[in-house]
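In response to the reviewer comment on reproducibility (Comment 2.3), we provide here a single inverse folding case reported in full, input and output, so that an independent group could reproduce the run without further information from us. The structure tokens appear first.
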């Protein structure tokens, strides 16, 4: 039966859901509060520089391919991908770094040179990670998080111990060199929790990293947003920006419509791709399934301090993606998760898309993006942002042995307060709710409202979790659930 469906937000999960629902024949309209689409993956241009505002690591290309295949298309019909080599570089001190290359054999040689015997151990570790990837990403994450039974399959029963142990302790059993340990712990940070709080099973992220590689859409991550938008329009979806939803109308415990700028828009189904906690504030209290206490008790992924910087020269000694792990990894993690505060010595991540994509910056110039992960809900002020910019830019200059401060011709910061103002993000989280053992699959907030009929949710606070590939999957899962209920 053909339905009218209103979707709140235009992030990857909402865009994905819109495609599946339109393909099923429904009349689908996306309403986005901001003036451009893409949610946390928006893009802006200024002074000739192009900045992707959120995701920059294109991992798990197979998930994107599977998405387009569901519509009889190929990813390459919508955008071009470049495999990065080195995939990324990890700095540990002045001119002291490890490059992670684009194939496992080369990475094994790097490991072996640092720790004798580690190449063989890495192969075994990645074999196990691949087996988990095949179970998780090709199957489990495509289950809707309705029942615990979804997780019980002949294959997962054999891996039960991997839900009890954690990624950090497993890695430490095999590898002794602290640098190699940090490199192996890095991928699960994308899931939003400390490696010591992330079940071992999630080491499939290491296969995504070393096995499948790091890719870059030719003119930036926004190519993916543009590609999916094109597909959505081809399927008949309508997209409206500058349309903040103020209220969800409920009658007889059934969602009936939304209110935008005081105007009521009636719909058969409401699907929210906006942050879950925010969406429930659009309902009267009695219709909310999760209390303030519930949200307060969850482990959220970090917020972030971001800087978008344009340089009037090329930056030397740097790769497209670079991690600055020259300070204590565990202390920074404790400052995010254990006793939330601004870290004394922050780890940071820098990316220079203009190293790969000449359109990202004017000729002879460089586009830079810097990210410091921070505790969600932390105090945010211009003064603090500037203090931390000084800290990281000084370290950048020292570690990469060059002066760049005087070459900054554009700079914009983005931090917790912006995540709240721009995305209605709970505590200004950057990438949703962490995937800890107690926040996995059926233990995450539900795709279908427990209190209001015809109201659904998608995105990084529900299943399967944070990241662009999970957001695409989340859109598919909710579309299937909606269709099943009709
Ligand atoms: C800095 C940063 C770096 C990241 N790096 C990576 C990476 O390298 N690789 C990766 O895979 N993932 C990364 N992520 C995570 C990834 O970007 C997200 O998981 C994903 O984009 C989330 O998509 P979503 O659809 O769940 O939500 P969002 O993108 O947040 O979309 C929600 C949308 O709802 C809109 N909205 C909110 N309230 C309303 C309202 N009342 N009315 C109308 N619209 C509303 C918002 O404006 C927003 O557009 C990163 C995220 C950030 C922030």
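Designed residues, in position order:
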């Amino acid at each position: 039966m053909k339905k009218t469906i209103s979707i709140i937000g235009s992030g990857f999960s909402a865009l994905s859901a819109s495609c599946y629902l339109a393909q099923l024949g429904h009349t689908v309209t996306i309403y986005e509060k901001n003036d451009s689409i893409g949610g946390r993956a928006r893009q802006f241009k200024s002074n000739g520089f192009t900045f992707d505002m959120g995701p920059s690591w294109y991992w798990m290309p197979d998930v994107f391919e599977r998405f387009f295949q569901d519509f009889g298309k190929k990813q390459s019909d919508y955008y071009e991908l470049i495999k990065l080599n080195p995939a990324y570089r990890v700095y540990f001190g002045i001119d002291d770094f490890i490059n992670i290359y684009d194939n496992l054999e080369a990475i094994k040689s790097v490991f072996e040179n640092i720790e004798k015997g580690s190449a063989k151990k890495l192969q075994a570790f990645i074999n196990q990670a691949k087996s988990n990837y095949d179970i998780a990403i090709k199957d489990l994450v495509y289950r809707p998080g309705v029942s615990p039974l979804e997780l019980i399959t002949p294959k997962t029963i054999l891996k039960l111990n991997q839900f009890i142990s954690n990624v950090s302790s497993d890695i430490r059993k095999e590898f002794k060199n602290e640098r190699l340990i940090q490199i192996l712990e890095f991928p699960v940070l994308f899931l939003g929790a400390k490696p010591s709080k992330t079940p071992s099973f999630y080491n499939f992220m290491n296969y995504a990293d070393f096995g499948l590689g790091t890719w870059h859409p030719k003119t930036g991550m926004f190519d993916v947003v543009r590609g999916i938008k094109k597909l959505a329009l081809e399927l008949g979806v309508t997209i409206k920006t500058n349309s903040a939803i103020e209220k969800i109308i409920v009658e007889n415990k059934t969602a009936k419509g939304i209110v935008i700028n005081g105007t009521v828009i009636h719909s058969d189904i409401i699907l929210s791709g906006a942050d879950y906690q925010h969406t429930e504030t659009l309902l009267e209290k009695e219709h909310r399934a999760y209390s303030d206490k519930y949200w307060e008790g969850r482990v959220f992924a970090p917020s972030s301090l971001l800087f978008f910087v344009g340089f009037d020269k090329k930056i030397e000694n740097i790769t497209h993606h670079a991690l600055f792990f020259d300070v204590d990894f565990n202390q920074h993690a404790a400052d995010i998760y254990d006793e939330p505060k601004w870290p004394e010595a922050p780890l940071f991540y820098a990316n220079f898309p203009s190293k790969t994509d000449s359109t990202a910056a004017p000729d002879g110039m460089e586009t830079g993006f810097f990210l410091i992960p921070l505790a969600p809900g932390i105090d945010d002020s211009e003064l603090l942002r500037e203090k931390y910019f000084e800290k990281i830019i000084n370290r950048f200059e020292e570690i990469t042995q060059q002066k760049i401060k005087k070459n900054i011709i554009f700079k914009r910061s983005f931090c917790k307060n912006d995540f709240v103002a721009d995305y209605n993000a709970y505590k200004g989280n950057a990438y949703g709710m962490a995937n800890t053992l107690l926040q996995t699959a059926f233990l995450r907030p539900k795709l279908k409202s427990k209190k209001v009929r015809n109201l659904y949710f998608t995105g990084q606070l529900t299943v399967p979790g944070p990241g662009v590939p999970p957001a695409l999957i989340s859109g598919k899962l909710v579309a299937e659930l909606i269709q099943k209920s009709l």
